[in-house]
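Fill-in record for ATP synthase subunit delta.
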Amino acid sequence: MRGTSRASLEAVENRYTPVVRAAGGQARRISEELFALVDALDSSSSLRRTLADPSVEGDPKSALVARVLDGADPRTVEIAQALVRSRWSADADLAGATERLAFRALLSSAEADGTLGEVEDELFGLTRSLAGQREVRRYLLDDAFPAQARGDLVDRILGGQGTAITRAVARRAAVAPRGRRFVTTLNHVGDLIAELRSREVATVVAAAPLSPTQTDRLAALLGRALGRPVQVNVVVDPDVVGGLRVQAGPDVIDSTVLSRLADARRQLAG
């Protein structure tokens, strides 16, 4: 999301983040209602086009989204009306912005009950546990399987463990992937948690576990490079052979042996 859409999202987010945080535990309801709006936008191209159309005046769009959210929390309606009054570069950006705010509201409820750190650790643990489960990851993305079945699979994987917010995030990622891989959505939510905690999360793929000293040193180096505190999450992948692959947001630093060999092959082929 760039340009006009990015500016619109930031404006709405800056205005309503304090409102959602002040909602405390009720932020969970706001989240669920915003997710319902995402589903409505994804399932109706005409609704999505109308609500994102810059040629349609704000008042009719506000009235329409209020009808869609009939019975919702007034704070949810107010956020949705601010979204539809904003300008979007593409219809899909409206749904994407709404989903982001829905996840932010869900995480705010974890902030309110003091479980945000646990949610972060549990989502990373779930991501790591799926690293070698190719068939499971494929199932969670495949639209040929009913959404309810994908959600039930995630429930079985978690086995009732973890916080309520972790289970809600994971189930949402499975039921409504919106064209993304399951793990990609979990990583996206992890980035949102980092934003709420005013720091960056870097995922490091290494051939072997890093020692606490190595992890701390790498976090310090990345923090200086990125200009903000960094939490390092390490994923062990024996196929890496050597070196490290570091991803912090959109930035990827790949110094693995396999990467260097691939570069050499490309140079020889060229």
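KEY FINDING: The first strand starts at residue 200 and ends at 206.
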